[in-house]
């Protein structure tokens, strides 16, 4: 509300919202998260600078206690929380401090991510476990929301998970394609297959979100495009037509618009079969 201004006692108000995040009465947690994100957008600089009588910026305190703050929230509320924290981190002008805040912010989802990737490395069948696939979808949604708020500097986190994320994308894509071949298109409606498609879509959403906000086309071209081409475009061409995700084409559009004259002939080569498939 317009009542939120610089004089508003930020810390006690926000701490009250954190209490509400444990309150399971209908709608209270949603209200707390929605209010938190509004405050984060309006007062983001307040969170990253040391205020009078503070020992450290409020963001540090929030990140130190993040596990305890979000432990009772539903996944969609957790995603909102991370986006809110993302706005605060985006307001930190010192890139070294900012990078450390991003790492600290993402450490909880990264721990779960690392465990899943580690298990999948030893046994790829774990990526058929419904709970595991659901967790992957939620972790990627958390990354998407944080990335949308933080923008280009999120590159450090994206770089950390990028190659594993593309590997997961390909494995799940192959699982979906073989399920369609064996059981026909109706399998796409099955909960596990739908969850796998969510992971694919959120992967593309994360890449698009970052590329759309990136400020360094050369870095995108050299580091992010080559692994993406085979994983996403090659995969698109190999997929069963009904198992293809339209997000692939919109992601490529984001790349091409962003990179314009940096896009190599390589991309065009990969895109040719896609566009002919599209026009059929």
Short description:
This protein has helices at residues 10-20, 28-42, 44-48, 58-64, 66-70, 75-90, 95-105, 107-122, 130-150, 155-183, 191-213, 217-238, 246-259, 265-279. With 280 residues, the protein is mostly helical. Helix 6 (75-90) runs antiparallel to helix 7 (95-105), helix 10 (155-183) runs parallel beside helix 12 and helix 11 packs parallel to helix 13 (246-259).
Characterise this structure.
There is one protein chain. The chain is mostly helical and 280 residues long. The chain is 75% helix and 0% strand. The protein is built from 14 helices and no strands. The relative contact order is 0.07.
Strand content range: under 5%
Output the number of helix runs. Answer: 14
Assign the structural class, choosing from mainly alpha, mainly beta, alpha/beta, alpha+beta, or little secondary structure.
mainly alpha
Radius of gyration, taken over Cα atoms and rounded to an integer in Å: 20 Å
Q: What is the residue-mean pLDDT, rounded to a whole number?
A: 90
Largest sheet: none
Taking pLDDT < 50 over at least 5 consecutive residues as the criterion, the unreliable ranges are 1-7
Q: What is the β-strand count?
A: 0
Share of helix, binned: over 70%
Shape, per Cα inertia axes: globular
Q: What's the N-to-C terminus distance?
A: 51 Å
* H/E element sequence: HHHHHHHHHHHHHH
């Amino acid at each position: 509300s317009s009542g939120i201004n610089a004089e508003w006692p930020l810390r006690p108000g926000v701490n009250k919202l954190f209490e509400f995040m444990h309150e399971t009465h209908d709608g209270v947690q949603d209200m707390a998260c929605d209010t938190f994100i509004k405050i984060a957008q309006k007062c983001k600089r307040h969170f990253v600078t040391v205020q009078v009588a503070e020992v450290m910026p409020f963001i540090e305190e929030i990140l130190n206690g993040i596990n305890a703050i979000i432990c009772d929230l539903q996944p969609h509320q957790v995603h909102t929380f991370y986006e809110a924290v993302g706005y605060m981190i985006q307001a930190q002008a010192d890139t070294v401090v900012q990078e450390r805040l991003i790492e600290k912010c993402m450490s909880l989802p990264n721990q779960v991510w690392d465990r899943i990737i580690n298990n999948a490395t030893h046994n790829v069948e774990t990526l058929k476990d419904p709970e595991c696939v659901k967790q992957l979808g939620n972790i990627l949604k958390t990354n998407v929301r944080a990335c949308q708020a933080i923008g280009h500097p999120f590159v450090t986190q994206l770089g950390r998970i990028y190659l594993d994320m593309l590997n997961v994308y390909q494995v799940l894509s192959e699982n979906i394609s073989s399920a369609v071949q064996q059981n026909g298109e109706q399998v796409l409606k099955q909960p596990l297959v739908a969850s796998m498609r969510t992971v694919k879509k959120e992967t593309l959403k994360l890449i698009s979100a970052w590329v759309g906000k990136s400020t360094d086309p050369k870095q995108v071209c050299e580091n992010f495009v080559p692994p993406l081409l085979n994983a996403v475009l090659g995969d698109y061409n190999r997929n069963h037509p009904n198992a293809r995700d339209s997000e692939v084409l919109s992601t490529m559009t984001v790349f091409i618009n962003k990179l314009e004259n940096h896009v190599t002939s390589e991309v065009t080569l990969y895109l040719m079969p896609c566009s002919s498939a599209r026009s059929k």
